[in-house]
């Protein structure tokens, strides 16, 4: 079963393995399989579910809504996001304006079949909207009871600090950030994590397995496996491409004996590694079949000793991206027209 952690400086507990439905529900996986996988997650003790209005252009939220229908609502923690272009992708169908946030939450609640979400997240930072406008809209949603807590995704340390201060002035808390984080992508460690620890903000990390590369299934000098994410030009090939160099893949293969020694599979080792960071409240995982979660959840509650952590650094430390400046490129300087984002 899955362990639980507090989210930021709040009383809300979330399952440290959180189910995310990016690129699966409403696109790669049929509704019946998606619903069965969500139900398996619940059986395994996963109570936190992360989605976004942009996933499959709102269809992922609809599928998740169907999957949780009939469940005890109070026993779930539902997260969704706003910012990316949705619908017909008109000029106001994107961003963090008051208009888009208010329309966004109403659409998400309808699709999810609920009156509120535990966590509503700014999917990126919006350089084209005054931050005061964005935070005031979030404050109003909290007061209306439509969102119990507010979080963000891929914000820089400076953006977190400014957003946190405004939230405090407006009478609510900014409690979470959702960045990419894995053994191979450690850019949040330099600035984002220390700032978050100071402010009482947790990380909910996406791609802890580096788009599947840390599973070890991609081999140096070999073609990518048929049917893998690296072959899917619509859902993930462009994101994973930078991780498929032979030096990275060769380094990842060195993790196999480390995982064996720890009594873990390589995916379990990857997820357990991000959960060793005390600022990480949850690791987002996806699945296309229910049985995939049976092994994934075994990473919950695992403590990696210092020797194992050092062996991981020895294996992949030289190929890991650690530059904090990379956090400044996560949010586009102008609102995107249409792009796939986690």
UniProtKB/TrEMBL annotation:
One record GO biological process: methylglyoxal catabolic process
Any one GO cellular component localisation term in the record: cytosol
Source superkingdom: Bacteria
Molecular function as annotated in GO: oxidoreductase activity
NADP-dependent oxidoreductase domain span: 16-315
Region of interest: Disordered: 321-342
Keywords: NADP, Oxidoreductase
InterPro entries: K_chnl_volt-dep_bsu_KCNAB-rel, NAD(P)_OxRdtase_dom_sf, NADP_OxRdtase_dom
Entry-linked PANTHER family: HYPERKINETIC, ISOFORM M, L-GLYCERALDEHYDE 3-PHOSPHATE REDUCTASE
The family this protein is said to belong to: Belongs to the shaker potassium channel beta subunit family.
Protein name, as recorded: Aldo/keto reductase
Upper taxonomic lineage: Bacteria, Bacillati, Actinomycetota, Actinomycetes, Micrococcales
């Amino acid at each position: 079963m899955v362990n639980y952690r507090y989210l930021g400086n709040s009383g809300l507990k979330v399952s440290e393995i959180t189910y995310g439905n990016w690129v699966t529900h409403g696109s790669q996986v049929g509704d019946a399989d998606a619903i069965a996988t969500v139900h398996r997650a619940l059986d395994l003790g996963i109570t936190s579910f992360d989605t976004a209005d942009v996933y499959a252009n709102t269809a992922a939220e609809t599928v998740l809504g169907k999957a949780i229908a009939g469940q005890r609502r109070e026993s779930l923690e539902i997260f969704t996001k706003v910012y990316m272009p949705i619908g017909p992708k008109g000029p106001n169908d994107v961003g963090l304006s008051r208009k888009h946030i208010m329309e966004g939450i109403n659409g998400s609640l309808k699709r999810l079949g609920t009156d509120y979400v535990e966590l509503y997240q700014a999917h990126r930072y919006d350089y084209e909207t005054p931050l005061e406008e964005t935070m005031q809209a979030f404050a109003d949603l909290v007061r209306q009871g439509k969102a119990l807590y507010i979080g963000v995704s891929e914000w820089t340390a400076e953006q977190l600090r400014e957003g946190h201060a405004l939230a405090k002035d407006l009478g609510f808390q900014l409690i979470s950030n959702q960045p990419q984080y894995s053994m191979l992508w450690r850019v949040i460690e330099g600035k984002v994590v220390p700032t978050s620890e100071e402010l009482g903000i947790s990380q909910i990390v996406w791609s802890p397995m580096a788009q599947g590369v840390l599973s070890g299934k991609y081999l140096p000098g070999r073609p990518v496996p048929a049917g893998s994410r690296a072959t899917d030009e619509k859902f993930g090939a462009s994101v994973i491409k930078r991780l498929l160099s032979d030096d990275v893949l060769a380094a990842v293969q060195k993790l196999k004996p480390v995982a064996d020694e720890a009594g873990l599979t390589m995916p379990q080792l990857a997820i357990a590694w991000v959960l060793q960071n005390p600022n990480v409240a949850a690791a987002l995982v996806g699945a296309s079949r229910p049985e995939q979660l049976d092994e994934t959840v075994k990473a919950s509650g695992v403590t990696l000793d210092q020797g194992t952590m050092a062996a991981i650094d020895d294996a992949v430390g030289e190929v890991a991206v650690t530059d904090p400046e990379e956090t400044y490129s996560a949010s586009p300087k102008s609102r995107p027209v249409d792009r796939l984002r986690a």
